[in-house]
Design a protein that fits this description.
Elements: H1 7-18, H2 21-27, H3 32-46, E1 51-54, E2 57-60, H4 62-82, E3 95-101, H5 103-120, E4 124-129, H6 138-141, E5 146-149, E6 159-166, E7 168-172, H7 177-180, H8 185-190, E8 192-196, H9 205-212, E9 218-223, H10 226-234, E10 240-243, H11 249-253, E11 257-260, E12 268-274, H12 282-302
Parallel strand pairs: 3-4, 3-5, 8-9
Antiparallel strand pairs: 1-2, 5-12, 6-12, 7-10, 7-11
Helix pairs in contact: 1-2, 1-3, 1-4, 2-3, 5-12
Family: Belongs to the LysR transcriptional regulatory family.
InterPro entries: LysR-type_TF, LysR_HTH_N, LysR_subst-bd, WH-like_DNA-bd_sf, WH_DNA-bd_sf
Organism: Streptomyces roseoverticillatus
């Protein structure tokens, strides 16, 4: 059996994450010429160019894209296996963590989280991935390392941690009648609403509550993201629905007003989820603490 150099997998992971020989060399604390030689070895081993020139940059080949998630998962598992049981200093952590979160949460917690990571663990990188991975095997295959949001679609082995429960509020432009005079259920239902759904769904729990009161709202517009809804609300008389607490910062920045929804709605539970393979990984454990503390601080400042 031919001997396998597992360092090649580490180099391949860095090259595919960075998309650059220089970037991969810096990440692995080696020189660009040495990384170029390693890339040449990878090309011979895989019988594939791996990265090809596109303008001034490099882009992965189809074969490299096929291998990326599996290689990343394998390398992370190896680091977890060989990591000492002691707690690593944040400044010594080296990892790229893929986080899935919707734009409601990203508008609030991404910036303070990034500031924490950059100041304490500059060797770590955060990669925010789209919601399209939600409900797929992305966490099992290592494409997603952490998910932050409403956790209602997870595999049974997934580890979770609650972060915060938040209430839903109405969001309208400044000067909208609801801003100065919060509506009762009938006035609320009579307004034109904007829905937010990645899958294009119009109805939700709020419609169930209205139906119990013999009411029905009109939703003439549905958009896939919260940020788009806020910009539409700013320039129209449409009424949006959003979370208080974590989601409250974005409406404030856009000069929008919020009002209490005149319905008995359950709170929205926000949590954090990860695959067991990352449970004891020092970088993941440290980052999970930072996310927890960031969320607690944000909610505390808005109480």
């Amino acid at each position: 059996m031919a001997q396998i150099d597992f360092n090649l997998l580490v180099a391949l992971d860095a090259l595919l994450e960075e998309g650059s020989v220089t970037g991969a060399a810096e990440r692995l604390h080696t020189s660009p010429p040495a990384m170029s030689r390693t890339l040449a070895r990878l090309r011979r081993t895989l019988q594939d160019p791996v990265l090809v020139r596109a303008g001034r940059g490099l882009v992965p080949t189809p074969r490299a894209l096929e291998l990326r998630a599996e290689v990343n998962a394998f390398v992370n598992q190896g680091r977890t296996l060989l990591a000492p049981h002691g707690t690593a200093a944040p400044g010594d952590l080296r990892a790229t963590v893929a986080i899935q979160a919707n734009d409601v949460l990203l508008t609030s917690f991404a910036a303070p989280l990034i500031a924490r990571v950059r100041s304490q663990a500059p060797g770590m990188s955060l990669r925010f991935v789209p919601e399209s991975y939600e409900g797929t095997s992305a966490m099992r295959d290592g494409t997603v390392d952490l998910e932050v949001g409403i956790l209602d679609h997870l595999d049974p082995e997934t580890r979770t941690e609650p972060l915060v429960d938040t209430e839903l509020v109405g969001v309208v432009r400044d000067g909208h009648p609801f801003a100065a005079d919060p509506p009762d259920p009938r006035r609320y239902a009579a307004a034109d609403h904007i829905g937010v759904s990645r899958r294009g769904r119009i109805a939700g729990p709020i419609d169930d509550r209205l139906r119990e009161l013999g009411l029905q709202r009109r939703v003439p517009v549905t958009v896939p993201g919260y940020a788009a809804a806020l910009f539409m609300v700013r320039d129209t008389d449409l009424v949006a629905l959003g979370p208080a607490g974590l989601g409250g910062r974005a409406p404030q920045l856009l000069g929008l007003s919020t009002f209490p929804v005149p319905l008995d709605l359950p709170p929205v539970s926000i949590g954090m989820a990860w695959h067991p393979r990352n449970d004891r990984d020092p970088a993941h454990r440290w980052l999970r603490r930072q996310i927890h503390e960031t969320v607690r601080e944000l909610v505390g400042h808005q109480d």
